[in-house]
Write a structure and sequence with these properties.
CATH class: Alpha Beta
CATH superfamily: Flavodoxin domain
Radius of gyration: 16 Å
Strand content: 5-15%
CATH architecture: 3-Layer(aba) Sandwich
Length: 196
């Protein structure tokens, strides 16, 4: 089994439905995976850079699990990236992450229909991933196809909506686990399709 490190970038998993469910399902299915909850590790926002870098060095596969926030990473996860992925560690002539795999796993609040050339946003979800592609290229990481689920909003939650979001999150986690198990077994992945 390959070493899997999951970086959870949700700013408050104690008040999360989807991301908390996804991480719970992953922990149950892949008990050897290391899950690093940035919200509980760094409630004051002070990142232990050395601990984070050591965790990444042990990993063969790095998963970034997060809710899409303003079409990118949530604030704490962006801070983590800024402080941990520094020159000499993540990139540059002495970079240490080369050859590892990076998988983006995220949820969006808006439904998939808005992420379209004719939708409200005017772009597909993949169009917003170019900065991640550039980061992976700079750090010599192999960026895998993302696993994502659209339409998991934190607004207007009632009991039925929460149940629906938990179902979507379990389906998301199942897709992610399948990809990770496939990578561990064969070293390959197939394109993960987003859920509507």
């Amino acid at each position: 089994m390959k070493n899997i490190t999951i970086i959870s970038g949700h700013p408050d998993l104690n008040h999360s439905i989807a991301n908390a469910t996804i991480l719970g399902e992953i922990a149950a299915a892949l008990p050897d995976a290391e899950i690093r909850r940035l919200d509980s590790l760094y409630p004051d926002g002070k990142i232990n850079i050395l601990a984070e870098q050591e965790s990444l060095l042990k990993a063969d596969i790095i998963v970034w699990q997060f809710p899409f926030s303003w079409y990118g990473l949530p604030g704490l996860m962006k801070r983590w990236l800024d402080e941990v992925f520094v020159h000499g560690f993540a990139h540059g002539s002495r970079a240490k992450l080369g050859g590892k795999k990076l998988l983006l796993s995220f949820t969006t609040g808006a439904p998939a229909s808005l992420y379209d050339a004719q939708g409200l946003f005017g772009h597909a979800v993949e169009d917003y991933l170019i900065p991640f592609e550039t980061t992976a290229r700079l750090c010599n990481l192999e960026l895998l196809d993302p696993v994502y689920t659209c339409g998991i909003s934190y607004a207007d939650r009632d009991a039925d909506k929460i149940a629906q979001q938990k179902t979507q999150a379990r389906e998301h986690a199942a897709r992610l686990v399948t990809v990770l198990q496939g990578l561990s077994a064969k070293g390959q992945t197939s394109r993960s399709q987003p859920a509507a």
